[in-house]
Amino acid sequence: MTLTGKVAIVTGSGRGLGLAYAQELARQGASVVVNDVVESAADAAVRAIADAGGAATAVVAPVGPTETAKQLVDAAFETYGRLDIVVTNAGVLRDTVLWKMSDDDFDTVIGVHLRGTFTIVREAAIRLREQGEGGRIIAIGSPTGQRGNFGQTNYAAAKAGIVGMVRTWALELKRASITANAVIPVAATAMTATVPYFASAVAADEKGEPMPRFFRHDLGFGTAADVAGLVAFLASDEAAGVTGQAIGVGGDRLQLWSHPEPVATAYREGGWTYDALVESFAAEVGELQSLGETFPPLPDELQPPQA
């Protein structure tokens, strides 16, 4: 139990991936502040952790407002006397194409994912620096934030912003021995359950059966439990030297995402005029960067049934 004596906050942990993170942190010995907007889900998560021999308390509140951030951090100190780990997982989806996306669609997703991550980490950083014993910030990103995805302007912006904040926090919090990393999970969730491509994998997960190897190995797509191990590792003393990173995990696959770096550089005396770009852009830049994620064809035996 590598996290014995540690205290963790996990936002959006009443169900799904967040619940898996909270349960694994508790299994490793941490006391957990569970958070959800649905009281019954938060209470059920606390009971599940307690039934497994762990310690947990719940804060039922929407992530985003500074008041919620203060409430969560206060709950950690008032209940357990300290704070060591923050996992920012809470999120919502409002998917639609750009020209149909309303202000509310955009603001809601940015408010929960991006502002919610910012407010809780800001509050935690203040208290962790005062505590003076280091700490762990683990923010949950998404492949959409790394690559983009059709119909997810708001979600892509929020998740890309989270990774940008993590890189900045790693610099700002280094002297306080507080690490900051982003986890990029690829797992069966309520969102992937609606995608026919993943139907057989999600169905296997719901039945408690192993997912087909094609999903776990070839796609790096797995269960919530497959992601939870990385979260617990990053929360541990063993990961003290890991900070400012975006790390992907899913199924049997672990990935370290690169920081954005130039892939082509060219110089021209006097600068790049319009005419010079028309003449030389393609030759100087070369192959452009790809967009979105592409998946290989499903094997015949994993094809979803035809309607």
Write the layout of secondary structure elements.
Elements lengths: L6 E4 L5 H12 L3 E6 L2 H13 L3 E6 L5 H15 L4 E4 L14 H29 L3 E6 L2 H5 L5 H20 L5 E8 L13 H8 L6 H6 L5 H12 L10 E5 L2 E5 L16 H12 L22
Parallel strand pairs: 1-2, 1-4, 2-3, 4-5, 5-6, 6-7
Antiparallel strand pairs: 7-8
Write a short abstract of this structure.
This protein has 10 helices and 8 strands. It has 307 residues and is an alpha/beta fold. The radius of gyration is 21 Å and the shape is globular.
Features:
single chain; 307 residues; alpha/beta; Rossmann fold; eight-stranded mixed β-sheet; 10 helices; 43% helix; 14% strand; SDR_fam; SDR family oxidoreductase; Peroxisomal_Beta-Oxidation; oxidoreductase
Q: Regions with pLDDT < 50 over 5+ consecutive residues?
A: none
Gross geometry: globular
Total individual domains: 1
The CATH architecture:
3-Layer(aba) Sandwich
CATH superfamily: NAD(P)-binding Rossmann-like Domain
**Total DSSP E strands:** 8
Secondary-structure class: alpha/beta
CATH class: Alpha Beta
Strand order of the largest sheet: 3-2-1-4-5-6-7-8
